[in-house]
Amino acid sequence: MSHEDAIAIIGMSVRLPGADTVADYWRDAFHGTVHIRRFTAAELVAAGIPPEDAADPAFVAATAPLDDVTGFDAAAFEMSPREAAITDPQHRLFLEVCRHALEESGYSGADGRVALYGNTGYHLHPLQGYLRRRLDGRVFDDAFPYNAVNGLQVAFGNHTDFVATRAAFRLGLTGPVMTVQSGCSSGLVAVQAAGHALRAGEADLAVVATAAVHIPQIIGHRHVRGSIHSRSGVCRVFDAESDGMVTGNGAAAVVLKRLDRALADGDTVDAVILATAVNNDGDRKSAYPAPSVPGQVEAVTSALHAAGVSADRIGYVEAHGTGTFKGDPIEFDALTEAFRRHTDRIGYCALGSAKANIGHLDSGAALPSLIRAVGVVKNGLIPPLAGHTAPNPRLALDESPFYLPREVTPWPGPGPRLAGVTALAVGGTNAHLVLSSPPPRPPRRPSRLAPGPLVLSAADPAGLRATAEAWLRRLRRVPTPDPARTAMTAARGRRHHAHRLAITGRTVARWRDGLADYLAGRPGGYVCTDVTTPTTVDDPPATRYVDDGTTDWAAAESGRERLPGYPFRRSRHWIGPPPHETPETHDHDRGGHMPAPGVLTHIQEATAARLGHPVEAVAPSATFLSLGADSLSMVDLARSVEQRFGVRISMRELFEQGDTPAGLAALVADRLPEPTPTTAGHAVPDPQAAPAAPAAQPAPAPAQTPVPPPVPPAAPSSAAAPAHLPPTVPPPEASAPAWHAAPPYPVMPYQVPVADPGYEHRTVAALTGQIQQLITINQSLVNQVAHLTALLHARDGGAR
């Protein structure tokens, strides 16, 4: 395929379980981190589930929840609190990821024709949405009475028909804008539509976005035999223990541009879409919701043909992979048949699925899969299939082109890295996409001076300060961004608000000094709408920007840099009862305490030390008993965890919910104290920046209004990390990375336990429980032997 037909991905954004950035999402993928969790009976009852259902063993309560679905920065999108409150969280997340993806591409304030294709919707939990569960019967009151106008406002903020067009209005997008809805394949179908618009010249840039959130977040279902929902509450894809899918929540967006234009404009290209194909099963299946091998085969082979690529060059396929025992083999058979039309090779192509990590995002499932595959081809690393135990016996794996990766591995061999991405849907709309690693970046001549000042803005003073802090952190890091492209990105690659700041000077060094002066509250080389003290700054472009937002000096294109996005300052906008959200938090949102993956790493290391395993053998989903632990070693492990993190884990919790490293880590994470926030909102990480040094873990702050901390000094560094790549992952050219040796987050070393006054009591309690279990088992065996003896006597007597 020529550059004229290929489509470049130049920006991405996610809000997914456990990850508010693409870097976090890829880190979790490469580590095999699972964010699906089961809820306790108490959590279910608090969320409105009837107690009898919550206590029923047939009631399966598991999903991959999203942190803070009630929060939204209404001011950033010029929404009133009322409008924000009556807007579905899916629509709000959709807006956020669209904006951040455009900012990462450097074109958030672009004047060209920007298209938008997107969707929202949740159908795997029917009628579990914001409109039905929160607004119905509560939204209208004396201040907001029901009438035709107010009714339309509620419709605009909740129906998927309007999600793309409302985002176009809020973000100023003037290209083709529409909702694309085909069920679970909607994201890839939208990517194909966007590609057509770009090739036809209908748009200069295209955003594809999706959001799927069920309300309430704490949810469950009564298991029905034959259902696609998991009985165990665990999503195991292509696995012998597969028993169904588990739902998830989240939002994602990508920014697309013709590859030839992206290279000419100096954009950062994350990956290249060589071709897409979409079809429908029609009536070639047994029932409407059933999958079809012929339809899936045609989608894959059509995409390969359009890309001009043989299947023997594909090294990774991000499968639809829902975790159903019968459905996964159908997709596997279709992929095998499609590949066998090109090659007889065996076991050379890895299979993966994001759903094993973050659950099934319903109509929003395809874009997280695409972004995961971008991480594979960009970074040259193949992630493990999370939670994998053994292959599904219905797979003819040994004779197929595929293998199921158990750990992160480097991409084998040189040359362009090629991957496939599949998305399937109830109703039969199949989509497949062929993805390539980015081409070598053409050399760019660095500039000495910028054409104008550095200009920043926000919707309120606190947001402006948070923006200035984020940009100063970036400008202090190595490599230093190009001054001309930095000024251009700030001026023309961002939307501008009423609170504005202009830093004088035309070099990065001058901007660092000006930002530091502004944040310290002292006079310096800056002009700001929020600073009333007289200034002696003589910089007409800076003054004009602060006065009226003019950036006419930035008319000449200078290219774009990857720079921090808008730091959303979310506050609660919600109607109805509290959503009873899960206590899961993220390090970049809540401050510096260790995130759940760091807790998990400590538990895996401590378990390995006690049981004599290598750390990599301690899988997050493996039970401690299956690893060879007994009740004593589990109690000892619990004591170590309690001392290390300052939490309490009961024996019942340890043996029921914390019987795996992942389960114990979730219990610990839920109990960690909430520290003082260290940042306001979210900022897209700079992909070319070298990693900052790990921050010290602060002690929990007392309950008081937090004071924003000073901007930390730059962390020393000597090399840049690839875009979105977790700091410890080597570039693709490096040989055999020791991934498990250096995780990209703080890891607490295993500590030898010290004296604990409660240790003997817990040990006796655990031994007592174990003895009682043995007595019960022994009694059961005695009863079975007696029953068998009676049967034998009866048989012998009958024979005589």
UniProtKB/TrEMBL annotation:
Ranges of compositional bias, category Low complexity: 683-696
**Which keywords, in A-to-Z order, does the entry hold?**
Phosphopantetheine, Phosphoprotein, Transferase
Q: Which InterPro entries match?
A: ACP-like_sf, Ketoacyl_synth_AS, Ketoacyl_synth_C, Ketoacyl_synth_N, PKS_assoc, PKS_Beta-ketoAc_synthase_dom, PKS_NRPS_Biosynth_Enz, PKS_PP-bd
Q: Where is the signal peptide?
A: none
Write down any Gene Ontology CC term. cytoplasm
Q: Which SMART domains match?
A: PKS_KS (SM00825), PKS_PP (SM00823)
| Protein's UniProt keywords contain Transferase | yes
Compositionally biased residues, Pro residues: 697-715, 724-734
The lineage's top-level taxon is: Bacteria
The GO biological-process annotations, alphabetized, read as: DIM/DIP cell wall layer assembly; fatty acid biosynthetic process
Record Pfam families: KAsynt_C_assoc, ketoacyl-synt, Ketoacyl-synt_C, PP-binding
- Tell me a Gene Ontology molecular-function term this record carries: 3-oxoacyl-[acyl-carrier-protein] synthase activity
Location of region: Disordered: 567-589, 673-736
Tell me where in this chain the Ketosynthase family 3 (KS3) domain is found: 4-437
Put simply, this protein is called Ketoacyl-synthetase-like protein
